[in-house]
Amino acid sequence: MQFEYLTETTERLEVKPMNTEDYEQWVKGYAGRAMPQSPFDEGCLEIFHYSKAWFQRLIAQQQALIQSDDTYVFGVFRKADGVHLGNFNLVTLARQHFQWAECGYAIHNQFWRQGYAYEAFTAIFKTAKRLKYHRLEAHVHPGNHASIALLKKCGFEYECTRTQFIFENGEWTDRLVYYINLNDTPPLHPTSF
Q1: Pair 13, 85: CB distance under 8 Å
Q2: What start-end ranges are recorded for coiled-coil regions in this protein (predicted)?
Q3: Domain coordinates of the chain in residue numbers?
Q4: Each residue of 64-95: b (16+ CB within 10 Å) or e?
Q5: Could you confirm whether domain 4-192 is CATH 3.30.230.80?
Q6: Is the pLDDT of residue 193 over 70?
Q7: What is the mean pLDDT of residues 122-140?
């Protein structure tokens, strides 16, 4: 399997870059979503728009981003039955002397409140350390209290509020910045990536 070095398992989960063989489980995860449960939840998707050919192109794009050390997208799969529970990503913000990435995450709403996001974070931290990231940031909408609680539970700390930071829904909106420093490993030489 390509990118096997980026795969981590926990008691219940496998967190890994997706490949084309994951299509059916990916569809099941998205197709099983309930109606939106909060303003920050997309809810149901019309999954019929996403063909196997479309998914193959998506995977090729994600693999190219991994190879360039730009973005790492991870599928979160339940080990017991292989079902796709959601996604995490690490986006390189700076290397060299910083080793800094933004992390994003989404668990399908039918799997909320079962501890999957917290458990997946334990795997993501291991992978982020392997990738030599020192600092992870999460940028959270101020009203997304569930996400803020998750980040705090995972050890992230509030750093600041970035005002009018992202343009969404026709306006500039604020983001709270939460961070965690993962290790004291010196940065890799920039040519290592």
Answers
A1: yes
A2: none
A3: 4-192
A4: ebbeeeebbbbbbbbeeeebbbbbbbbebeeb
A5: no
A6: no
A7: 94
Helix segments in 90-155, DSSP class H = 116-130, 145-153
- Per-residue pLDDT reduced to its tens digit, 73-89: 999 999 999 999 999 99
CA distance 164 to 97: 28
> What is the per-residue pLDDT for 187?
52
Q: What residues does 73 pair with on adjacent strands?
A: 89
Distance separating alpha carbons of residues 82 and 116, to the nearest angstrom: 14
Predicted model pTM:
0.89
Number of residues in the chain? 193
* CA end-to-end distance (rounded Å), the chain: 21
- Higher-confidence residue: 124 or 49? 124
Q: Which residues on neighbouring strands pair with residue 80, listed in sequence order?
A: none
Helix (H), strand (E) at residue 29: helix 23-31
Tokens, residue 107? 């668990």
Tokens of 54: 């479309």
